[in-house]
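Recap from last week: sequence in, structure out.
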Amino acid sequence: MVTNLANLQMVRVAELMEVPGICFVDGVDPGPEIIELATENHTLLMVSAVEYSRPAASFINSSSPTLEAGAGVTTWNSCPTT
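Predicted structure tokens:
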């Protein structure tokens, strides 16, 4: 899931949709409550400084393998070009 909304509802939606990870874009900082809930749900969190449209287009056009669910936050500063 790619979003610029950092709130607990995003983690809950990811869990309901069985999405293994959330990428917060536009430099959005997932607060400690979000990190804690994601850790409990084994949801991967990523943070990117790039704007929303660039990583979304890359994920849609990518043939990359699916992310596996895991706890923690990964900082992602650039986006692959296609």
